[in-house]
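Supplementary notes for students who missed Thursday's class. We covered one full example, reproduced here. Read the sequence, then the structure, then the short commentary at the end.
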Amino acid sequence: MTEGLIIRSISGLYAVIPDDAPEQMLECRARGVFRKQNITPLVGDRVRVEDGVIWEILPRKNEILRPPAANLDLALMTVSSVKPSPNALVLDKLITVCEYKGIEPVILITKTDLDGGEDFAAIYQKAGFRVLFSGEDEPGREEILALMQGKTSIFIGNSGVGKSTMMNRLFPELSLRTAAISDKLGRGRHTTRHVELFPILGGGYVADTPGFSTVELEKYEPIRKEELSRCFREFAPYEGKCRFADCAHLKEKGCAVLAAVEAGEISRSRHDSYLTLYEDAKKIPDWEREEKK
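Structure (token representation):
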């Protein structure tokens, strides 16, 4: 059998780049047994193929449900400074998924030629995230490319934030489609229809992904309330310092995290997102809680 990498998945057909002939591309279908086992090959999967059939999916280091992809190293969380304005809760939910899955999130603020976005960026810089800026006058191209070398990276963001435009600037050879922002709706049209990996010079791959709406965000990975605090990295220095060992960092007396919020050491915006996501996590059905243990 030949080992390779799935770079595209459309309607049950998988494009696989074989390790022993990377200049070729194999069009494959998955074994029927995968469907019976409720297993779906994902873009980013390493697989074994023979005669146009995927026979085995090699172990994954991570996977995400939306966009469906596996074995990711870096997520460029793309947020526009204006049109549409940044949504902290949406970004924070995406970040928690990445933190939970062991994918390094980097915040990429676009359209900084229209609005610098410094105040929004400061929230995430304070929390310990790397923040990059991109605009017509300040593309930040070299810094972004250096960060992606040798990694499998994915651009994630809601519709209209400029993901495909950003990738066109970084990788003009890809010629990805872009669409204008709808002034009436205040959001972009979905120009990317599926997840696809593209090889980049110097090694590594980059994926463009479909944009999403706020409603579609509900389809992202659910995280149990007991696991949520570890997905907020700025809470880490205060864990174990609360009065109660089982402190949930909501409104308990003697909570070190809440004290840090009041002291300005943790952003109130980030803690507000934590509170909202915690309430969402409480709604996860019991059967799903057991599956995730």
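Commentary. Residues 178-192, 213-217 have pLDDT under 50 and may be disordered. DSSP finds nine helices and 15 strands in the chain. If anything here is unclear, bring it to office hours.
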